[in-house]
């Protein structure tokens, strides 16, 4: 069976951005113009055409120290985008990863609004939400995700979730012995468990990750309201989209 989980060992990441380039190349995503904003992070955020990025976090203390880490869609086992999508465009694949069916997506932006990791982004020109697909086309054909294939330092690896978690726990334990008392595994339980597992050498917030990612109260309320009327909401949203397209522009809610 194909793997479905990526391990990101931040202790081995050199911030070369090879994963960013590989993601752009394989998915044929165009480059974007950026400006210097005082940080080495580039690009500074996810966009409809930037699905992978590397964070550069500088920490003062006993000398300056850098914290590097790859970020992408976490492919949550209890994914807010899947639970809230009114047209069921966001869905779990046969491998448990999360994908967006652009044929169904109406660009409503609910996934963008409520994702605790702020990953999906709506391409307003196309009226579609886009994000990392964990190279579903590659992994179902026995290939590694493009980012993992390109990583020169061994910071990224790929396998079944059980295999990756065992490797992550062993690595975190070894790092603690090597002088990293805050070394930990991130993604084992967060959001019901993630298909992107981290080995961190410091607290998650040091890498720009939420310490305890959770569904907001408003998201929970909206999800409960949508559930019994999902078909009606979907029909209404599609009608709104079609009406906007008929006037020569799309509308977004």
| Distance N to C terminus | 40 Å
Structural class by secondary-structure content = alpha+beta
Sheet bearing the most strands, described?
4 strands, mixed
**What share of residues are in beta strands?**
15-25%
What is the C-level CATH assignment of the largest domain?
Alpha Beta
Query: In one word, what is the shape?
Result: globular
**Gross CATH architecture of the largest domain:** 2-Layer Sandwich
N-to-C series of helices and strands: EHEEHEEHEEHHEHEEHH
Helix content: 25-40%
Summarize the structure.
This protein has 253 residues and is α+β, with helices and mostly antiparallel strands. The chain has two domains: 5-75 and 135-207, Alpha-Beta Plaits (2-Layer Sandwich); 80-131 and 216-246, Alpha-Beta Plaits.
Task: Explain what you see.
The protein is α+β, with helices and mostly antiparallel strands and 253 residues long. The protein has 2 domains: 5-75 and 135-207, Alpha-Beta Plaits, CATH 3.30.70; 80-131 and 216-246, Alpha-Beta Plaits, CATH 3.30.70.20. The chain has helices spanning 18-26, 80-84, 110-114, 136-139, 146-150, 161-177, 217-226, 230-246; strands at residues 5-9, 53-59, 65-71, 90-92, 98-100, 121-123, 128-130, 156-159, 184-186, 196-200. The strands form 4 sheets. A 4-stranded mixed beta sheet has the order 8-1-10-9. The radius of gyration is 19 Å and the shape is globular. The chain starts with a strand and ends in a 7-residue tail after the last helix.
Please give a handful of descriptors for the protein shown.
single chain, 253 residues, alpha+beta, Alpha-Beta Plaits, 4-stranded mixed sheet, two-stranded antiparallel ribbon, 17% strand
């Amino acid at each position: 069976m194909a793997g479905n989980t990526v391990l990101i060992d931040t202790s081995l990441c050199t911030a070369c951005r090879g994963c960013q380039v590989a993601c752009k190349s394989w998915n044929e995503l165009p480059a974007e113009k950026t400006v210097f904003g005082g940080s080495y992070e580039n690009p500074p955020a996810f966009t409809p055409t930037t699905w992978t990025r590397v964070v550069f976090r500088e920490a003062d203390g006993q000398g300056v120290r850098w914290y590097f880490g790859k970020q992408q869609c976490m492919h949550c086992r209890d994914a807010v985008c899947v639970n809230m999508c009114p047209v069921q465009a966001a869905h779990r694949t046969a491998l448990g990863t999360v994908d967006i069916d652009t044929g169904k997506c109406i660009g409503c932006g609910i996934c963008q609004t409520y994702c605790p990791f702020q990953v999906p982004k709506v391409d307003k020109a196309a009226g579609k939400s886009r994000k990392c697909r964990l190279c579903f086309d590659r992994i179902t054909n026995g290939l590694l995700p493009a980012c993992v294939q390109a990583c020169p330092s061994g910071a990224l690896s790929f396998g079944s979730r059980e295999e990756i978690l065992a490797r992550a726990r062993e690595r975190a334990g070894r790092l603690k012995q090597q002088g990293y008392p805050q070394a930990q595994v991130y993604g084992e339980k967060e959001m019901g468990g993630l298909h992107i597992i981290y080995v961190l050498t410091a607290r998650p917030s040091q890498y720009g990750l939420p310490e305890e990612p959770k569904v907001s109260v408003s998201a929970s309320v909206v999800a409960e309201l949508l559930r019994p009327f999902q078909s009606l909401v979907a029909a209404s949203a599609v009608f709104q989209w079609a009406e906007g397209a008929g006037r020569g522009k799309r509308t977004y809610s």
